[in-house]
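re: that chain from earlier
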Amino acid sequence: MKFEKRLSALIDNFEKRLSLEGIVIPDSGLIGGSDRPIPWKDYSREGLSCGWDNLHFPLGYAFALNIGLPGIVSRAGVKNAEPIDTNEAYYRHAIARVYTLLLQHIESHRQRADELSAMARTVAEQKRLLRISLNLKALVLGPPETFEQGLQLFWLLFRARTPAGGSCLGRLDSALWPLYERDLRKMETSGEKNLYRKEAMNLLCELWQKMNNFASGDTLMNIMLGGVDAEGRDSWNDLSLLMMEAAVSTGGSEPHINVRIHGNMKSEYREAVIRLIAQGNGQGVIYDDDCIIPALTARGIPLKVARLYANDGCTEITFDGLSGIRFWQMEMVKTLELTLFRGTENPCRPHKKISKWNHHGPVFYFESGLTLGYDSGDIASAKSFQDVWDCFERQFRFQINKYFEKIEHCIIDDKDTGTTIGSLLVAGTLPESLDKGRDPLRGGFTIDNYQFLSGSIPTAADGLTAIKKMIFEKHWCDIPRLLTALASNFKDEEILRQQMLQAPKYGNGESYADEVAAKIADLFCSIVEQHRFPHGIQVLPGLYNIDFIMFASILGATPDGRLAGDPIGEHFSPTPGQAKNGPTALLHSASTCNLPRGCAASPVHLSLPASTVKDINVITGLMSAIHVLGLPIVSITVYDPEELRDAMVHPESHEDLIVRVWGYNAHFTDLTWDLQNHILTRILNTKELP
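^ sequence. v structure.
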């Protein structure tokens, strides 16, 4: 009975959630449902959890659109001959109850549309409201039959899942394509194909605008377009193109468009991707199937599952409608700091409150996730760079093992203890949950997706490179003097700091620093790959970090000449301001490291000043180079540095300026000063491109 009562509480929470959502028929457009978030204070006060769901992975939208909500209720129902006193049966009953409540919610929308239609003052308004009503009625009775109904169902499912914030959208072009294609074929016979395409574009723009009204910034609203299907066939379609065009047309930050490319993609799709990137607001992060899919299968992911990868609410790999995601991230530059100071933090580390990304958000003191106190050796007595590396590797392995303990505890909790119940709404979009009553965390997902990430490796590599070059080769100072300078934030040691700044840096196409970065990355991936986790789960390594701004905020000065609190490289990108030989050199540096091995996510940011990009052919060339060099994930962005600087001083004049932050786009003026400065300083200082 205890399990049944817990499920009953989740169902009650879902009913309250829908009540707070309300019944909203828009004043214009054809997609019913609210586009305003429930205030977080109201949502959190009620504690409206419907089961575990971190929102970083897409629902099984393709499955839900195919069978419809009544189909989910029917499929979750317990058969007559089946016992009803098992946890599996209770769970299926609970899924059916949640989706019955959602159907009632949709029916209430339909009734409201009918009421408004009866009061409409114009024929056009009456027709619009009746059209909404008919679409909602179709969803109450069965699966969507048109693209318009598919968008309506998607939006209502999305809102039911995330009434107070955003969530991942997945491969929405693939999920909606069967409905769009069916409509298109009907229009072809009547000669109205072009007219229909225009109507579909208007619907997508309406949906995109709803997302922008709902939230902006770190919303998790990522869409993955294109790529291959489960059979390896190119899956891009006209809807992929329309979604890109809608993003350009609406011009908002939402949703965040990501694109899959491969060697056999059609030229029409490639050209659309290039146009999307060239518009300059951070849309169109590139994922290369020819790198990512083999790397995933090498880690034990079945080929057909690997081909269906998408990205989560940020950049990490998920599997569309087949997996959730859990991830941990380790601070690599802080690991170097703990190595230098024998398990303690640099005395000059900043102590200030920060906000994660939005200057409107809460401020707090951030603390390291690493375990302090482990002395991995006396750096001051090192006789060679190898001695320094050995101390770093001991600290490195110690910290990784501490994270392994956390990951193993989570896996055991997910699989064995049953203390967490997976979301009933999520479960309804998963065939295994529906048919067998399996919680998503315990068999409902097709694939387990646990990830261990570490980014900013290039900044750590720059620090180790500076020690190797300037201390053990050029002998410009000894380690005790360097440690004293670091502890004081280079007070009275500006000459030494300038010398350390002259050491080779990752991102300039020079092997000296690049090889150190590659060595750290290979060591991290190797340790994760070799570790044996409970239940035989393969944890995916990733060369990626979400919280690089927060990590930088608690770092003291580092051996590469960086001052306390200054930016560090995000993901596998250079330390901002240190890549000075242009985009080609940066890409070559990245290619010296086996980035596909970090198959959970190993992105590189390539930010270019707008003045150097004379025409779209520059983007074409860079996109080709990314594919040839075998780089799995690259974000190409084009900005005007002077515009960004002016926006920092006069935000009221630049409220429509949108930039790519990491796994999301945002209005530049919404960002904290630290993030604004980071984005500005990572723009490459490069000569004019051809």
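The first strand starts at residue 222 and ends at 226.
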